[in-house]
Amino acid sequence: MQGAVMEGVSGRYDFYIGLGLALSSSIFIGGSFILKKKGLLKLASRGSIRAGQGGHAYLREWLWWAGLLSMGIGEAANFAAYAFAPATLVTPLGALSVLVSAVLSSYFLNEHLNVHGKIGCILSVLGSTVMVIHAPQGEEVSSLESMAEKLKDPGFIAYAVCVLVSSILLIFVAGPRYGRSNVLVYVLVCSAIGSLSVSCVKGLGITLKELFAGKQVLKEPLGWILLICLVICISVQINYLNKALDIFNTSVVTPIYYVLFTTAVMTCSAILFKEWQHMVLHNIIGTISGFLTIVSGIFLLHAFRDIPFPPDLLPLFLKQGRADLHTFWREAEKHQSCLHQPLLGPEDIHKGSQSVEEEGESV
């Protein structure tokens, strides 16, 4: 009995550690977008070849390296969070990086986020919250042997082949034609490759756990293969994420990248760890609803990002209320007795208001 209680307390303690690491990861990753964008803008002002045109001058800019360091810290915290909390909690919490990036970009990059973008960000966060509540539970994988068996699954092999083929087509076919006009091209590459990198992170986390437990895992080739694959995937992500950030607005790239990346990770985890097999109906409906909410938010953010929202677009009663709100409340307090006479006609109300004004003037 006491052992079960201690195990429950330890599990709750690990949950809060994972939650704290996931939150700090979102802060660092959200800030990294701003630092990288500042570095890329600084290089553009000097006339250097931009990353969107294939240049790599950002490797000599300290702001870009500061952004990379911030992203590295965030990814390290995210990596550690997977060891304490389930992936279904850690991955959707990346939505907070959207808010961090959007707020910081409005202050430090002077990037205007209209009301559609703000609503889109809010919907993305709400949708991710619903997905967290109804997220499927992952199948337990506690050793490299079981991880190796999962990686040999035909479903995961087919998924990995589709990701690699689609990424190659996006890079060499769609990129030169539509990369500078469509934000989805480069972001899709980052998201698809990123889903494979998360699988590598899970495998490396298991490797580190077994290493700390005293097992001879360094002699196992799977751990080294996962490490090499992770380095390759992260390199591809960094390269094409820089291209997207250099060409498009940060407040647009960040939410779209989050949604596509989260969707790809959820799909990869469902295929690799068979998370959807034991879900009940209301959790399936909740997960789909959360996903559709996120898609709606991204649609608002992306489709209307260049459309201004001036006060002239407000409904007439809102514009009148905005202009005369103060006067209305003053007159409402002054003529409160008259306002509570709904049976009076317009002429009687006009006469009553005139009489009240005359009495006020005589006093």
Automatic annotation (TrEMBL):
Task: Name any GO cellular component annotation.
Answer: membrane
Q: Name one GO molecular function term.
A: magnesium ion transmembrane transporter activity
Membrane topology note: Multi-pass membrane protein
Q: Per UniProt, what is one Pfam family of this protein?
A: Mg_trans_NIPA
According to the lineage, what is the superkingdom?
Eukaryota
According to the record, the segments passing through the membrane are 15-35, 62-84, 90-110, 156-176, 183-204, 224-241, 253-273, 279-301
Q: What keywords appear on the UniProt entry?
A: Membrane, Transmembrane, Transmembrane helix
According to its UniProt record, where is this protein located?
A: Membrane
Report residue spans for region: Disordered.
Answer: 343-363
Where would you say this protein principally sits, based on its record? Answer: membrane
* Family, similarity comment: Belongs to the NIPA family.
Q: Any idea what this protein is called?
A: Magnesium transporter NIPA2
